[in-house]
Amino acid sequence: MEPIRVLIVDDELLVRSGLGMIVGSAPDLELVGTCSGGEAEECARRLKPQVVLLDVRMPDLDGLAVLRLLRALPDPPAVSMLTTFDTDEYIGTALRGGAAGFLLKDTAPDQLVHAVRVLAAGGSMLSPAVTRTVIGGYVEGGGPDADALALVRTLTGRELDVLALLGEGLANAEIADRLLLGTGTVKDHISAILGKLGAANRVQAAVIAHRAGLVRPARP
After folding, report:
1. Among the residues of the chain, which ranges form H helices?
2. Do 105 and 69 share a structural domain?
3. Which sign does the torsion angle of CA 186, 191, 197, 200 carry?
4. Given CB 3.0 to 4.6 Å as the disulfide criterion, which of 7, 52, 212, 220 pairs with 152?
5. In what order do the strands lie in the sheet with 4-9?
6. Where's the HTH luxR-type domain (predicted)?
7. What span, in angstroms and rounded, lies between the C-alpha atoms of 116 and 155?
C-alpha cells in the first residue's frame, strides 16, 4: 500500500521539525512537506496530502483561514487542528469549517501517528483529553441547547448511548466494550447517528452530544 501523505502547517520551524520527525518515523506515513500558513494552499495543491496537521494560531494566515482554503480544494485533505492550549476560542468555528480532529502539540508520538492513520481512513480524531477541555469548554454554559435537544430526539435509545460515549472521545472499540456490542454494530450506529444529526463527522456529533447535555461535566 502507498504510504499516507502528510503535510504539516505551522509557523514555528522547531514544531514543524519535531512533528516531521514523528511522522517520518512511521513506515506507513510519508511527510510530503512542511510550510507556514501563507504557503499552505499552494503546498496542498502541489503535494496533494491526504492529511494536514494545521496549527490554529499563526501570524501570517491563521489556521481557520487556512482550513477554509483547504476544504475548498477539489480533493480536500483531512485536517486536524494543532494547538498548544487545552481550550481554544476558535474551536467552534473550526468544527463548523470541517476540521476532522484536534490534537495538542504535546500529544505522544504514537498517538499522533495513530491520529494520522484514523484521519486518512476517513475518521475523526478525538482524544479524550482534548474532548473534555476543548469541546466541553466550547459548549459550556447556559444548559442544554434547544436545537441540539431537537436533533437527539430523532435517535433511538441505543444511538443515544453511543452518541454519549462518542462525546466522551471514546473510539469504536471502547464504545463496543462499554455497551457490550460488536465494533461493526457500533460503526453502523455511528453512521446512522451522523445521518440523523446532519453531522459531517464525529467531531461535530460530539459537540451536539455536549450541547444536548448527554455528556457529564468533567470532575475537577
Report:
1. 13-24, 40-47, 63-71, 91-96, 109-120, 128-130, 136-139, 146-152, 157-167, 172-179, 183-197, 202-211
2. yes
3. positive
4. 212
5. 29-35, 4-9, 51-55, 78-83, 101-104, 125-126
6. 148-213
7. 30
